[in-house]
Amino acid sequence: MEALQNLLMGFTVALAPQNLLFAFLGSVLGTAIGVLPGVGPVAGVAMLIPLTFQMSPTGAIIMLTALFYGTQYGGTITSILLNVPGEAASAITCLDGYAMAKQGRAGVALSIAAIGSFVGGTIATIALVLAAGPLTRMALQFGPVEFFALIVLGLSLLMGLAGKSMVKALMMGIFGLILAMVGMDPVRGLPRFTFGRMEFMDGIGFVPVIMGLFGLAEILVNTEEKLTSVSVAKMSSLVPGKKEIGDSVGPILRGSVIGTLLGLVPGMTGSASSFLSYIAEKKVSKYPDRFGTGMIEGVAGPETANNAHANGALIPLFTLGIPASPTVAVIMGAFMMHGLIPGPFLFKEHADVAWGVIASFYVGNVILLILNLPLIGIWVKILKIPYGLLFAVIVAFMMVGAYSVSNSTFDILVMVLFGIVGYLLRKLDFPLAPIVLTLILGPLMERSLRTALDMSQGDFGIIFESPIAVVLLSLAAVILVAPAFRFFRKKTETLSGEEGA
Amino acid sequence: MQRIHQGAALCFVAFSVFVVWEAWNLEYYTPLGPGPGFFPLWLGAVMGGLSVLWLAQVSSRRGRPKEGALLPERDGRVRLLSVLGSMVAATLLMDVLGFQSAMFLLLLFLLLIPGRQRLWLTLVVALLGSVGIYHLFGSYLDVQLPKASLSLLARLGL
Fold first, then answer.
1. Which of A171, A419, A427 sits opposite B12 (nearest CB)?
2. Please, are residues A61 and A342 in contact by the beta-carbon 8 Å criterion?
3. Model pLDDT, residue B62
4. Residue extents of the structural domains in chain B
5. How many domains in chain A?
6. What's the pTM value of the predicted model, to 2 decimals?
């Protein structure tokens, strides 16, 4: 009942004309970013943070979160019409979505994807409303020790799932933490790694770093090839038939549950949700061999799951202050730039912001549903803009975005530097996601531990006095050590196999 | 490619040595607990250990990376460097020529050379882009974008 009252209060904030406008802008820009090649959601959100500096914190976060789940809608359009996923989470949609487009059913695939995305996003938001109270109450019991342990657990989950190599994921995580050390020491206020430069006193700006690592690096990779236009599949009627609607109900409901639950787990990517949903649909289908030939279930399930995931991933951020994915970490950074700390205290100290933003998720999902179907022609036109023209405009926006963080050309050079670093790291097959997460969580982790140790006058025993912290840290240790065990077991099996042969 | 991975691993080792060296000069522990050097020192040490582990992995026969070049062929390399070079040049020129002129020149170059767009389209997009972005950020979002320090350009309001 309390949650419902809070949500109603949130709706009064979300439905205020200026916040409606921000949700609309975020949805449009998010869809455009999802459609555009070369700008992922991480770089997209980072690029648009400077646009929010003049806004109220509520309006800014409403716009950025709308942009985040808007990218999921946009990514679907390119998967179905182009066979090129705009976002990794929409990759699996290519299989049946593009096959449907080739059969002249692109409109139906897009409609079902939009409806599924709307349902998935709405169900995940309901889950957030229900989880907010209990999770927040639990988190309010946490002191610095427990928060330190929670951040370590969150980071370890992200590391284990970040890529093919645990060593590389850990290296990137540590790299992000080292970058987070630049600037003033959070407890003693002494400069670290600043090399005497005033620009580094406040630390390395995360907006230029993220725009470089994700946005510019992607552009550099695309620039290697000749910059050409794309061919788009023809559109058809948007109205699905009765059978297609009937076949989509089950996948949409299953996709909503899968996406919401996986969204809660830090480190689970949207692509994991959509992939799992695709496998689930194939398993329950009477015709699993027909998947990949244009089955509507192969579009409805994954598209619902990735949107439910995007909204579900905001649950740990809002309730515990832990971002579950790189894009959510950037949103967390935006919260902090607006003087807000996401987590349990947000509900206590800025209830209007927290519930206003949550209510805006419903509003944003309705806007996206309305926007996507009738405006599909506009998105198709955006797809036809030559990349040679588009990339120059994106570069210009990235430069002015980096500059406007602190009105300094130095930040543009930081972005270029991290663009080169990101390009090389991608070439060497390093996962970049851990850098974002540790860059944003690093200072919080250090502050929590050092505050805890200040309380115990330097005695590390304080960590082991908290049963919650011990459980969380043990889980983190298991997650980090498990891959090493698997590696040694595999090696032993291989050796015994060789001996037996 | 194995050599490149080994080289990259050595770069990471060097980076971690540098981090440890810098952290060494900071206070490691205080009577109240860890000092400013505590975290960086351990992070540098762990980074060093992981880099050595990666070096061992890429040097072993099993962990040998797949063949493939780190950098693209000549044409791609030229496009890559032209994008990066023009961005750096435009950034350095911003305080001299002003934001609008530097951005106009950058867009002109990017659209014409790596982008291979038609001249008229390039001119229109470069002009609208530089002036439009300046007004969007400068007028509506209150960002203080650089003005030209050259008196001739400054007199033109650039």
1. A171
2. no
3. 67
4. 2-59, 74-155
5. 1
6. 0.85
